[in-house]
Structure formats: structure tokens, C-alpha cells
Fold:
Amino acid sequence: MANEIQTIGVLTSGGDAPGMNAAIRAVVRQAIVQGKKVKGIKRGYAGLLQEEIVEMRASDVSDTIQRGGTILQTARCKEFTTLEGQQLGAEICRKHGIDGVIVIGGDGSFKGAQKLAALGINTVGVPGTIDLDIACTEYTIGFDTAVNTAMEAIDKVRDTSTSHERCSIIEVMGRGAGYIALWCGIANGAEDILLPEKYDYDEQALVNNIIANRKKGKKHHIIINAEGIGHSASMAKRIESATGVETRATILGHMQRGGSPTCKDRVYASTMGAYAVDLLCQGKSNRVVGYRNGEYVDFDIDEALAMQKQISEYQFKICKNLSL
Structure:
């Protein structure tokens, strides 16, 4: 076939996520098994425009599956949001013989893949983000590691919060999505969770809950605050002033992005990376890999980006019920 994929490019874009290296490794080795060449594109779309492109062999991804971050590095690129930048990116792909690109990242990264596909470069997106905010898939690479990192940190904060009989506001990542906060709220037994999708900014309700729990004899009060709400330090001051309970804010920050990926992240990332190669080898383009109902599936990027994702009402409800 004249249009059969011969060389696959792979890049990581946007925020890094544990498991990205497992996905890169899978792309490289699955492609080689199928007789394809692989070229790594460093620093995402920014590196593509700067032609930071290297040939990758199976040995180049040895001893990487257990490493956090991304061996290809990542960056954000405003230039690639322009038509000129996208056209240049497509031209550079052709210059380097790259006729298919696998993009590992989030929704913003997939928009770039969508533009490359429209310019004749076959593309497949692999969902890599700790935020779990991609609507077409029930799972995104990095979420399991990030939420476990946050959970373990919150357990430690709870210990000292109990010792000092404090209220602790612990801010977790997630950008505008509350999935890390929701899962930690359930896993850590938090008394309150503040999610961008649900919070009504009624701090008096928090104050009342803290006071009521203190009267019940609770020695601590844990509030999980999502990054999309933020302002944890100023919130802590207001709550301490209103309740008389010593209140401290802890922002977990970028520690949630790092660390060795969990078994789940390694397995899902490996499977998704290999699946993406298979799609390109089948001549498919403008696709996003996903995981739904126990199966690895794929969607048209246009369809995937149009989907909306909602917080589970039942999980949100039981998080409140179980905190009593």
C-alpha cells in the first residue's frame, strides 16, 4: 500500500504524568515488532517546531517503565495553536519521513493532533493526564499514581492534625476537575471535599460542620480542596477566625505529578501505547484511545473533544455520608 505507515513519531505534551514512559516504551517496541521506524519528538509540539527529533530503538526505552515523568520531556506551545505553526509542524513531519504521530497528553494535546490530522498527518491520541478529565475515557494515564501519592500524603497530615486537634485544608491538583479531590475524600475519610463541579462557596456551611464535629468529640477535621477552587491559605485563616479551631493549609502541589508509576498506570499505559500503534498500522487517523466498560476502545478526536464528563453523583453523595 502506497499510504502505509512506515515511520511513527511519538511525543508527550502538556503536564507530565506517571506512566508516560511506559506508554512511550510500548509505542517504540510495538512499532518495531510491526516493522516500523520510530522517531521521538522531544518537548512536545514545541520540540516538533524546533525539529528536536531523534530515532528511537528498542534499547532507548530500556529501564524506563518504572520511571516517572517523561523521557521525551514536555512543554506547552502557543505557536502550535496558530495555523502557521500547525502547517509548519506538518511540513516538518514530512521532512523527517514521519507519516503517523502518537500524541500522549490531555485534551489540549489532542486538539493539536486533530489539526495535524486535518493537514494529512495520521494521528492517534493517548490519554495521559493525572486529572482524569478526558470525557471519552474512564481512565487516564497517571491518575492512579497521583491519587495514591495524594492519599498517602493526606494520611500523614491527618496524623499531625489529630495530634494538634486542628482543621487541615489539603489542596490537591486537578486543574478544573475534582476527581483527585473526590477520590481522596473517599479514600482518606475527609469530613469535607470542595470540588469545582459542586462547591457553592458557602464557607458558613464548612464552619458549621467543623463546629458540629468538634462538639461530637472529633479531634481533627480534614477538608480536601481541589486546585480548581484553590486559595487554601486564605480560606484557612477565615475558618480559624470563624471557628476558633487552629486551621492549617497544605498544598501538595507537583509532588503528585512525579514518582514511579503504579502497576495500574504501567499496564494501562503499555496497553494504550501499543493499541495506538495498531490503529496507525491499520491506516486509522484522528483517533483517541480510551478505556470503557473493561475494554480498550478508540474514538474520533472530534467526537471525543465534544464529550462532557460529570462527577459521579453517587460517589459525591457517599463521600458525605461516610464522613459522618
